[in-house]
Design goal:
Elements: H1 15-40, H2 45-60, H3 68-76, H4 90-108, H5 112-134, H6 141-150, H7 152-169, H8 176-187
Length: 200
Amino acid sequence: MSDQSTNPQLFELQDWQLVAFSAALSERMFPNFALFSRLVEFGNAQQLRQILNGVWDKLANTGAKMNFEVQLDKVEANIPDLEEFTMYGAFPANDAVVALYSTLNVVLVADAEEAANIASLSRECVATFIEVSEADDQLSDEDVVRLINTHEMMEQEEAFQDEVLARITAAKKANKELITELRALAHNEGVSNIGITDSE
């Protein structure tokens, strides 16, 4: 899809920066699951929200404790089965939960490869949305790729990832102010990477 699938900058980040990057992308994708969860009455979005909050609390060093290893099973239990749920909405919902699962893995073992996978997952989520909503059978494969890569939504995705990287690499260590700002940026007033919001 996008030719910037792996950002080499990720492999130069400190452990906390990898966690912050992963958490920011998960935060931005979260409404995709929350809306799906509510509409089809699947999973526990509130539980996942608390787990993601726990990651932010750890980054901000609030003193709150969470056993992230224990949370992995809880998150995994919320991954929608794409054979059971065949509607499009299950796909971005699945991506959001997988991103959170990967984020917990980054918390446990700071792995740049895992963070890079989350970045790719978020881009793929946007690419699929553009293809499903705007591409048609008349377009060649090259046209579809061009549509995706030049689409405003993909440009926003790239800009968001770049902005997160810029903010965390400018900081020597995590501080509460930076994490609060990063969280607000990622929350994006409740609008996800594909323009979904779960405000009832």
